[in-house]
Amino acid sequence: MDLVTALARARSAERPGPDTPAGPAVPDWPGPAHALPPATPGRLDLDRLLRLSLAAADPAGRLRPTPSAGALHPVDALLVVGDGCSLPPGRYGYDPLRHRVHHLGPAPHDIPPGTTVELTVTPRRTESHYGHRAWPLLLLDTGHATAALRLAAQALGTPRPDLRLDGTTESPLAAVHVPPPGAEQESYAPQHPSPEADKPAPQADAPTPTDLLTRRSAPPPLAGTPARDDLRHVLAAAEAAGAGRLRWCATVGAPEPELVETAPDGTLRRLAAGEARPTLAVWAAGQRWLADAGAVLLAYGCPSDADAVRIRGDHLHAGHAVGCALFAAGRRALAARPVGSWQRADLGAALGGAPHQNWIVHGLALGSGRPEKRTP
Predict the structure, then answer these.
(1) φ, ψ for residue 249 (rounded to 5)?
(2) Cα(132)–Cα(45) distance, rounded to whole angstroms?
(3) Which residues contact 205 (CB under 8 A, 6 or more apart)?
(4) What does the DSSP assignment read for 11-44?
(5) pLDDT (0 to 100) of residue 370
(6) What would the mean pLDDT of 132-142 be, rounded to a whole number?
(7) In 3-state terms, what secondary structure has residue 111?
(8) Residue 215 in this model has a pLDDT that exceeds 70
(9) Short-list 76, 120, 114, CA closest to 94
(10) In the structure, what pLDDT confidence band is assigned to residue 192 with cuts at 50, 70 and 90?
């Protein structure tokens, strides 16, 4: 698949065709389905890890802790389980609709303790509605899944997860290694070293299980400009999780329309004056409600001449970062909704820079109202 051509087409004004069948919602994993057993003390509880991150809570499979474009959930998970887990070592396919696993074979001999969740996608699910615009959304959805796994690991109090979001492989697209409780950081060699491996995961605002089992994507409208400190906090969360792959800013309408970014001292400074939200609504596949959102956080970069590795890495990091920012917004009682589909969104050129260098990759619409909640 020519990802460079696919992204260029997704960014164009071309409209998708009629919807097509999405196909099966989960892979046809071979063999019998097994329930996830409860964890004994000192072992990684895979039942809770997956319930807090990838499992569906409704029969239709749409309601999950991790958001997805169109609630189509194209991301598939394969578990490579080592010692110290509630499942015996091996490779397992995960069925998020039934919350069951299928044993696929033995684990590699050099697998570290804990589990590595390898993430792939079934493009047909997203293509069924978004057509040629699917591939950026598939990558962003995968990044959101890594954020969900990271947050679930924090909720369980495990050592810092190791993330692989570099975009160097097509399958898996990304991987998250979660160590068992109490494991020493030096006791295993991560399968997929990454720039994030040397950075401790933030623990100050670790989520609770209830946080993660609550619907985190609020429906429009998202009215009301967030307080300046709340906006700064959410923007900082995205930047920290994004590992420097992209630039970040936010547009607000009140009390004075402007785009802001984080200054070196951690405060917000003006990037540009003027009202940007109506333009963003046009760029975001004509989603008119975006013109009235209280604020819109934006990740931008990934130039037109980026190769497939950079495209994958930038979009995976953007999805991961917006997934973490979504949680940060919820902690601040803000309504928040990811925005993944962008056409002709050359923000760098709009700000007076060179064209085709700084495209909008992902967004997070924010409102000052409390997000919709559901019972876990």
Answers:
(1) -155, 180
(2) 39
(3) 328, 331
(4) TSSPPP-S------SS----S--EEPPPPPTTSB
(5) 59
(6) 98
(7) coil
(8) no
(9) 76
(10) very low
Residues 71, 75, 80: CA angle, nearest 5 degrees: 145
Phi, psi of 188, deg, nearest 5: -145, 155
pLDDT at 194: 43
% of the chain residues with pLDDT over 70 = 92
For 44, which DSSP code? B
What's residue 127's pLDDT? 98
Cis peptide before 159 (omega within 30 of 0): no
Measured CA to CA, the distance from residue 76 to residue 71 in angstroms comes to: 14
pLDDT at 197 over 70: no
Cα distance between residue 37 and residue 53, in whole Å: 17
Other Cβ atoms closer than 10 A to 286: 11
In tens, the pLDDT along 97-123 reads 999 999 999 999 999 999 999 999 999
Q: Looking at this protein, which amino acid is placed at residue 230?
A: D
Q: Are 296 and 363 in contact (CB under 8 A)?
A: yes
Q: Is the pLDDT at 88 greater than 80, yes or no?
A: yes
Token pair 């260098």 is found at 357
Residue 70 phi, psi dihedral angles, 5° rounding = 65, 15
Strands 335-339 and 174-178: unpaired
Between CA 369 and CA 372 the distance in angstroms is 9
Rounded Cα distance, 153 and 156, in Å: 5
Q: Is the peptide bond before 180 cis (omega within 30 degrees of 0)?
A: no
In sequence order, the β-bridge partners of residue 269 are 261
Task: Summarize pLDDT for 24-62 with one digit per residue, the tens.
Answer: 999 999 999 999 999 999 999 999 999 999 999 988 888
Please give the Cα distance from 346 to 144 (Å, whole number).
23
Task: Decide: helix, strand or coil at residue 71.
Answer: helix
- 301 touches 358 (CB < 8 A): yes
d(CA 342, CA 352): 19
Q: How far is CA 94 from the centre of its chain?
A: 19
146 closest CA partner among 186, 188, 192: 192
User: What pLDDT is attached to residue 185?
Assistant: 52
Alpha carbon distance 241, 321 (integer Å): 5
Amino acid at 278: P
